[in-house]
Amino acid sequence: LKGYFRLDHPLCDLYQDWIQRDSHFEKIAETYNGIRLLDQPEFESLCSFICSQNNGISRITSMVKALKESYGKVVASVEGISVY
């Protein structure tokens, strides 16, 4: 999880870099503190992007969950829920 959520990268450094690159991010960062980029595998990112076309968040979430359950490997169990 540490690698996936990039918890080893200090948020302050990332935020300063992102604010310099995009002034709109400064407004977003004030409202949504804790934003991070995931270290998502390329294939997972591609599948999520394809699923996102013409779909809402709840449908995308259910499609990605179904793909993970069908083709992924269980890496952990949290409160009885499998994490892929």
Features:
7% strand; 84 residues; single chain; mainly alpha; globular; two-stranded antiparallel sheet; 4 helices
In short:
The mean pLDDT is 88.
Give your account of this protein's structure:
With 84 residues, the chain is mainly alpha-helical. 55% of the residues lie in helices and 7% in strands. It contains 4 helices and 2 strands. It has helices spanning 11-21, 23-31, 42-52, 57-71; strands at 76-78, 81-83. The chain has a two-stranded antiparallel sheet. Helix 1 packs across helix 2 and helix 3 (42-52) crosses helix 4. The model has no long low-confidence stretch (mean pLDDT 88).
- Secondary-structure-based class equals mainly alpha
Helical segment tally?
A: 4
**Biggest sheet, open or closed, and with what strands and sense?**
2 strands, antiparallel
Biggest β-sheet: strands ordered side by side in the sheet? 1-2
Q: Radius of gyration over alpha carbons?
A: 16 Å
Tally of strands: 2
Distance between the termini: 11 Å
Mean pLDDT metric: 88
Element-level helix/strand string: HHHHEE
Which consecutive residue ranges, at least 5 long each, have pLDDT under 50?
Answer: none
Global outline: globular
Strand content: 5-15%
Level of helix content? 40-55%
Would you spell out the secondary-structure blueprint of this structure?
Blueprint (H helix, E strand, L loop, with lengths): L10 H11 L1 H9 L10 H11 L4 H15 L4 E3 L2 E3 L1
